[in-house]
Fold this protein.
Amino acid sequence: MEYILWNRKEFDIIYNCTGINVDDIPIEKRRYPIAAIICILLGFIYYPIYFPCIYSFWKNRNKNPCYKLLIYLSILDIGILWLPTFSAGIFSLNGVVYCTSPISTYIVGCACLFLWAAECCADMILGINRCLEMAFPNISNILFYNNRVYIWIIFCNLYGLYWLIFIHPYIFNGLTFEYLFDPLIGYKDFRMELVTPRPGLGESQKITQLRPALTLQDRDCRGLGFAGVGMSGFGAGFKEDLRKFTIHNTILAVGSPIIYSIFSLCVFFKARELIDNVSKEEKMVFIQVFIISMFNTSSAFAYAYNMNHPDHGIFPLMVAHFAWIQIHGFPPVIYLTLNKTVRTDTKILFGKFFSLFKTNQNKVSSMVGHT
């Protein structure tokens, strides 16, 4: 986002659609209707079951700082779930690429950057919290209790803001059914390049030239190159983004197993003491966090692989995309299945709604009877 904030001239070059006719690539090649409809349906399934879980976390937030982290993580999940479900589904049904909807795809991409980075960071911190809580409770008290958990939440937000401000946004591309750094992947052989004016020329004398752009087959389809002659500097920018993205996903994919492996060793050497001190509820919360972290790990591996191996067809892309959906959509299923507290609070909440509905229905019936 730094280009649009402080470097508008470069932004106009990188995100330049001048001379591009989107319809040169038929809309049939930019649409995946079956996958898109499944994504939208999953969004409608997952969203409603999130809210009773958040209600339960909020109700128990003072019991343990992990509930505050779960509230924060759930809010991030709710904020990002619409991207791989509703957004990707609607974009795909309409054959959207950057040049068909530049404003909406750019805004969606910026939201994706912030939410994804913050969510991954929060997931790692939650895993550390759960492991410390069970293996080293004194250290956990020092790091997370007495509102210190909010320091970690602020850190997650700052990390997300770094990605939002200093990394090119992910732009949805209907050709590959994924979000990419390079907004102009897959266009035909030519486009109009806006060339930076020579010294002494006014803005009105900016030169516009027709320059050949590399085709989808001739360049890396993940943003390692940039269309047009003399644009290597911007291609390097996408390479740097890809490098940071790969490092981020590698840390996520490797870090979570390392954290839980260390915890497993601690459990092995302190098994009797841990079993005596850890409640059943804490054990179940740990299992839930572990499963969610493994979803993040598998998706991070899939996306890192696809970003660095772009020519393996649509199937790996679909696997990565639907794994991404499960990261943000499946947690409430895990909570409702494995967390007795969440299940109990959900039953109470639905009982209240049912009683309220029944009371209102009786009032309406009595009013109709009097008339």
Summary: The domain at 2-353 is CATH 1.20.1070.10 (Rhopdopsin 7-helix transmembrane proteins). The beta strands are 171-173, 178-180, 190-194, 208-212. The radius of gyration is 25 Å.
